[in-house]
Write a structure and sequence with these properties.
heterodimer; A: mainly alpha; Butyryl-CoA Dehydrogenase, subunit A, domain 3; globular; B: mainly alpha; 3 helices; 72% helix; rod-shaped
Chain lengths: 171, 89
Amino acid sequence: MTFDEIYFEHHKMVFNLALQYVQNIEDAEEITQDVFVKVFDNLDSFKKQASLKTWIYRISINQSLDFIKAKNTQKRNFLSSIFSLTDEKFKFEPPNFNHPGIELEQKEEYQKIFDAINQLSVNQKTAIILLKIEDKSQFETAEIMNLNVKALESLFQRAKKNLEILLNQKG
Amino acid sequence: MNSSSNTDMKQVFEQLANIKAVEPNANLQTLTLSRLNKKNIIPLNWVRAVACLFILFISSEYYVFYNNKSNRQDVASYVSVTNNILYNE
């Protein structure tokens, strides 16, 4: 499979996944470019232990999280970025909520939901995105996240509970 | 969890499931390819290798130069003070 074919087949998936993490077009485009640069660089070393799609999913998730971490580090000063907890580095407040998959009339409602999702831990956020937005099966999600199905189930239950608490706090 | 909050979460998840997949910008492929092409002009590993060789070359030159200088000083200490008087004068 050539790089062009891989790009053609997966770019929409990568872009939409990045969009769920950062909720604005510009950042999602930047992440998509980064993902395909990584895919290009590591295509030779790709071991077919997982499918190509799963591999690209993992790169996209890691790249989105790295992007968020980098943005947060830029915002904070040096000392606070060193002493902040690991998960704090991944909590994201998008500079402008500009999700093209959401209709304008519902923007406020969705912004509230995404604000709560952005407060979740990295794994909980990923579980919600893959299972509920990307509509992946439990088996696929577990494979992408390198977990077993039972661990994913309990992770999702915790994510759901925390999301509910956060949404109730926001009113 | 009570039943009303369960219904709320069900509604939240339904809303999330209704987010539409979006077609990315058409020139995103061009941008990605141009980034790859720029990247391919000089691979970073080659730049690192050349930089290492350069540092190695400079340090070996420095070592050789100072070694020679100290040798010259050693030789100079054996030679007596020069003067302009001829022996047969």
